[in-house]
From TrEMBL, chains A, B, C, D, E, F:
It catalyses: (8S)-3',8-cyclo-7,8-dihydroguanosine 5'-triphosphate = cyclic pyranopterin phosphate + diphosphate. Substrate binds at L78, C79, H80, M114, E115. The keyword Lyase applies. It comes from the Bacteria. Signal peptide: none annotated. Its EC number is 4.6.1.17. Pathway: Cofactor biosynthesis; molybdopterin biosynthesis. The gene is moaC. Catalyzes the conversion of (8S)-3',8-cyclo-7,8-dihydroguanosine 5'-triphosphate to cyclic pyranopterin monophosphate (cPMP). NCBIfam families: moaC, PRK09364.1. The keyword Lyase applies. This is Cyclic pyranopterin monophosphate synthase. Keywords: Lyase, Molybdenum cofactor biosynthesis.
Length: 162, 162, 162, 162, 162, 162
C-alpha cells in the first residue's frame, strides 16, 4: 500500500494514467466485495419467496454481476484488463434487505478488487431495476471490499458493518 | 407505480423478461441519482486539492460515469436501450467524503433512473480505483435515485439522508 | 421482399454496405425465432429437473439471449441499431432436446428478425456451454425465423419442422 | 469430461457460477466448429458467383465471425475470457447451402470450443442477414463442435453428418 | 455554429458534460468524412491488385469502418447515441495511397460527423494493421469532415486538399 | 518484417485471417504513436488556457484514448487481444495544433502498435468532437507509429515530420 501522500493513477503533473504493472509478479489473486440493497419486507418476499417459483430474479442479478465483472476494464478507465479465472455472486437475504457477495479470482499481475466491486454493484443495480416499480426508494449501500489476497500486499480483510 | 404485489420484470411463471414498453408514450424524462464515497480527509485532499493541479482525478471519474450511463442497457439485462439526450456528473466534496450526483435525460418511452444510477456508481467505482492504494477501506454508499420526472408516474423526489 | 436477383446489402460493384433505411416508415414490428439444442435425456434431466432446484441453468441462458438481442447490431456488421421495446426467451424442453423461442419487438424502421435470431442462438450457445462437459456432442439446429409482422412485407410465418 | 451426473457451471445449491479454472494448466488448445446455412440454389449463386465480383458477402461474414470469436466471453455468461492466438473462418459452398468452418487457437487454461462455435454462428447469422430479403426461410443448422485438442481431455473429433 | 468563444462540451466551471440535445429537432442528417493512408506503390499493389483475388483486404477494412461507426458513442465520451440509418465506406486507391471515404446517415437530433470520422479512421487503422508487417512507416492523414447536411447549421462542405 | 511480397493477414487464397501467433515468444513490448490535430489559435486557447480552469477538455480526450486502447481488438478485426500493462496519452499543445502522443506496453506475443495508434486516434477524435462547434474544419493528420520495441523485430523508431 502506498504511503498516502500520492494517488498512484495520477502522474507528477496531475495527469491520469494507467499504472505500469509490467514489472509485477504473476500470482493467484482473490478479492471479495459486497453491496447491500435495502428495500421493504414485501419486496424481499417477492424477490426470494414462493411467488417466484424459479427464483429467477436472483439468477438474473447473478448473471449480470458475473458479466459485469468481465466488463470491469471497459468501465473503469485506468483498470487493467485481467484474465478472470473464476467469478461467483451470492445473495444473503434478510428481512428487508439482501446482501450481495461477489468473489473473483485471477492469475495475473494486479488484484481483482475492482472486478469484485463491479460484480457486486451491477448485481445490486439489476435487483433495483427489477424492484423499482414497487419500491423506487430502495437504496444500495455498503459497497466495499471485504477481503483480498495475493500480490505484494498479501492478505487483507475487514470487519463488515453489521 | 405498481401496487407492490408483483415484480414487473418477472412473468406469471417466474421467468425473467424485458417488459414490453411498445405502448408507452414518448416523453421527455429526467432522473437524478447519487452515490457517496466515504474515505479519509487525507485522501479527499489528494482528490480535490492543489496537489493535483489539473483536478484530473475527478475528470476521469466524470467521463467514466457518462460513458457508463451509455452502457446501461448492456449491463442491466432487462433494461431497455434508450437514446440519452444529455448526461452530467457532478461532485460535491466534503471533509472525508464526496457526493457524486448524476443527471440523465432522454426523450423516450422509459425512465432513465437506471442510467443515472449506473453513471453514479461507475463514477464512484472509478474514484475508488484511484484511491484504493491509499485507502483500501473506502466505502460507497447511499446509491439511490434522488428525483425523476416524465412518464406516467410524473414528478418524484426524495429527501436525501444528510 | 426483393425479387431474388440481388442481395440488398451489396452494392452494384459488389461492395458491402449498410442499407439506407432512412425513408422507411416507423411501425411496430415483431419477430419470433427459434433454435433447437439436441442432447441426451440425461442432460435434459440435469437442465430442467429437480437436481437444479432453482432452474438456474435455463435462467442463465434466458438472460444471455436477452442481452444478446441488444448486441445484435454490434455483432452483425450490416444490421441497423434498433430501440428494442421488449424481448423474451422461452424454453420448451422435450425428452432429449430443448426448443428455444425468442420474441423481440421494436417500434422502428427495420424488422427485428436478426435480434430474435441472435437471442435464440446466444441462448442456445449458453446452454451448450453449460452442458459441454457432460455432452460435448450436443448439436444446435433449426435456427430459423418462425414469424414476423410489421413493416412493408406485413405478416409472415412458417411451418416449423416437427 | 465429467461423469454426466452434474453440470459443472451450477453449484451444489443450483446457482450458476463461472467455474474456477485457476488450477488448470496453460496449454495450446485448438477447436473447430461448424454451421450450415441452407438456402436456395439461386441465393447460393448470388453469394459466391460472378455477380458479386469481389466476393464481399463472404468476406463480411468472415470478419463478423472472427470479431464474434473475440466477443465470446461477453456473450456467454459463464465463459472465461481467453487470449485468442488465431482465428479463421472458411466457407464450403454447395448447391443450395454453405458450410461455415471456424477454427480458433489459444494458449490458455480453458478450451476454445465456445469461441469456435460463436464464430461459426455469428458468420452464419451475418450471411442470413444479407440474404433474408431474398430468402427469409433460410435455416441455420448443424452448429456443432467438429474437433478439439489440448487440455486434460486431449484430442476429440466427431463424424460430421453428411 | 457557436461564436467561437466557448466549447459547447464544457460547462461554465470547466467540467465536461454531454450537451443537452433534448430540444433539437429530429431531421435527416448526413455526413461524409475521409482519411488518407499513405504507403508505398508495392503495398498498394498488394492491397488492391490481382495478388489478392478476392480483394478481401479492402472488404475487411470496410466492415471494420461500418462497425466502428456504430461504436462511436461508446468511444467518444461526450457523443450522443444515434440510430444510424445507413453507413458506407468506399476506397479510392491511388499510386501510393488510398483515400477512405465514409458516409453516414441518421434521422435524429444530432449530426453524424463523429460517426463518419470514426468509420474513416477505424477503416484506415484496419488497413494499417494489415500492411504494417510490410510498411511499418505508413501514415494516416487528412482525417477530416468533407461535407454535412441537415440540422440547424444546414449544408456545409469543404475543399479537400489534393 | 516480412519481405514485402505478401500481406500477413491474407491467406494464399486471398481470404482474411487472424494471424497465428501461438508460437511467438512472450516478451515486453512498447509502442508509441501520435496524431496531430490542426485547428486555430483561438481554439487552442480554449482547449488549454485559463478559460478552462480544470483543463478538463484534455482530460476527457486522455481518458477516451486510454479506454480506446483497451478496445483495439474489438475494433480492428484481425488484431489479437492483449493484456495491456500500461497506457498513457500526453498532449503537446502548439500555437494552432496539438500533438497527441500515446504509449502502450504489454507483456505478450504481439506488438502494441495498433493499441497506441487507436489510443492516439480516439483521443484526437474526442478533441475534434469538443471543438467541432467552433472549428468544424479542424483536421487530424500525421497519425503514425513513432517507435516500437520488443519482439522479433527489436527496436524501431522514425523521424517525426516537424
Amino acid at each position: 500500500m502506498a504511503d498516502g501522500t500520492e494517488l498512484t493513477h495520477v502522474g507528477a503533473d496531475g495527469s491520469a494514467r494507467m499504472v505500469d504493472v509490467s514489472a509485477k509478479a504473476v500470482t493467484q489473486r482473490i478479492a471479495t466485495a459486497q453491496a447491500v440493497l435495502s428495500t421493504t419486507p414485501e419486496v424481499m418476499r417477492l424477490l426470494v419467496a414462493g411467488e417466484l417459483p424459479k427464483g429467477e430474479a436472483l439468477a438474473v442479478a447473478r448473471v449480470a454481476g458475473i458479466l459485469g465483472a468481465k466488463q470491469t476494464s471497459s468501465l473503469i478507465p485506468l483498470c487493467h484488463p485481467l484474465p478472470i479465472s473464476s467469478a461467483k455472486v451470492d445473495f444473503e437475504p434478510a428481512e428487508s434487505s439482501v446482501r450481495i457477495v461477489a468473489t473473483v479470482k485471477t492469475t495475473g499481475v494486479t488484484g481483482v478488487e475492482m472486478e469484485a466491486l463491479t460484480a457486486a454493484s451491477v448485481a445490486a443495480l439489476t435487483l433495483y431495476d427489477m424492484i423499482k416499480a414497487v419500491d423506487r426508494g430502495a437504496v444500495i449501500g455498503e459497497l466495499l471490499v471485504v477481503a483480498k489476497s495475493g500480490g505484494a500486499s498479501g492478505e487483507w480483510s475487514r470487519e463488515v458493518p453489521a
